[in-house]
Amino acid sequence: MKYTYKPRGICASRIELEVEDGVIGTVLLFDGCDGNHKGLTALLRGMKVDEAISRLEGITCKVRPTSCPDQVAQALKLIRDGAL
């Protein structure tokens, strides 16, 4: 199933995710650091949602209290919990 998440506090303006049976398919981040987004996407493809959350949640970016990886984790938590 495809999901769209509006991140907060980061350069990316939108995150689109595809998750089937608790496994991440595609992850697309719009705007922000293109290379980092491509790397994040490549690393997450095929990973279980709970594993991704445990690895990404809490990562910060410079002085910001969040980051693109953290915002992906927040989106995945909402998907896992049926709130997105």
Describe this protein's structure.
The chain is of the alpha+beta class and 84 residues long. It has one domain (2-80). Helix content is 38%, strand content 23%. The chain has a 3-stranded antiparallel β-sheet. A hairpin with an 8-residue loop joins strand 1 (2-5) and strand 2. It is globular.
**Average pLDDT taken over every residue:** 96
Helix content: 25-40%
- Main sheet strand line-up: 1-2-3
Output the helix-strand order.
Answer: EEEHHH
Approximate strand percentage: 15-25%
Low-confidence stretches: none
Q: Largest sheet, if any?
A: 3 strands, antiparallel
Q: What gyration radius follows from the Cα positions, in whole Å?
A: 11 Å
The beta-strand count equals 3
Distance between the termini: 11 Å
Shape: globular
Jot down its keywords.
alpha+beta; 3 helices
Provide a quick synopsis of the model.
Helix content is 38%, strand content 23%. It has three helices and three strands, in the order E-E-E-H-H-H. The radius of gyration is 11 Å and the shape is globular.
Topology:
Blueprint: E1 2-5, E2 14-20, E3 23-30, H1 34-44, H2 49-56, H3 68-80
Antiparallel strand pairs: 1-2, 2-3
